[in-house]
Amino acid sequence: MKFRILIVLALAVLLSSCGAKAVNLPAPDELFAAIESAVGLPEMVDVADWFLEENTGIEPSGYDSAVYYILEVGIAPDEIIIVKAKDGAAAAVIQEKLEKRIAYKEKTAKDYLTEYLPIIKNGIVRRDGLTISLIVSGQSAQIIEVYDNWN
């Protein structure tokens, strides 16, 4: 019996050390600046103060900081949202809302802007600890490299 308990404890310790590595992403504005510098995005403007809650339902009480960049000019679907949640529960809610946002963008494009469907379908919602991001861009792969190289 004691042997079994020791094995279970050893496995628990082993499995807990196999988890994802610690996520050390910077604040959303700093992360976006790094993306912009590395990728060379088109001109974008941060509309988080005006449209984050309206377009996604993400309430300010659930996050510490956020950016929401859209194209300054044009109708392309490019959109980068980066939110630093207050805690794990808020992060889960934010992730769900961003997944709904990208689904909405795809549904709308199917009806009105079909030429942008490939960009939207390649868009992602990713969670890195308490940082949740929605990335819709023709340069998604390069943006993801910035995230992956950060840690």
The figure for the number of domains is 1
Mean pLDDT: 86
Question: SSE order, as H and E?
Answer: HHEHEEHHEEH
Proportion of residues in extended strands:
15-25%
Number of helices: 6
**Which blocks of ≥5 consecutive residues have pLDDT under 50?**
2-21
Secondary structure: helix percent: 40-55%
Query: Could you give the distance between the termini?
Result: 42 Å
Question: How would you classify the helix and strand content by structural class?
Answer: alpha+beta
Biggest sheet record: 5 strands, antiparallel
Shape from CA axes? globular
Side-by-side strand order of the widest sheet: 1-2-3-5-4
Q: What this model shows, in words?
A:
Helices cover 51% and strands 20% of the residues. The protein is of the alpha+beta class and 151 residues long. It has one domain (22-150). Strands 1-2-3-5-4 form a five-stranded antiparallel sheet, with helices on both faces. A hairpin with a 2-residue loop joins strand 4 (124-128) and strand 5 (131-136). The longest helix has 24 residues, at 88-111. The chain is globular, with a radius of gyration of 18 Å.
Could you write a compact summary of the structure shown?
The chain has helices at 2-17, 28-39, 48-56, 88-111, 117-121, 140-150, and strands at residues 44-46, 63-71, 79-85, 124-128, 131-136. With 151 residues, it is an alpha+beta fold.
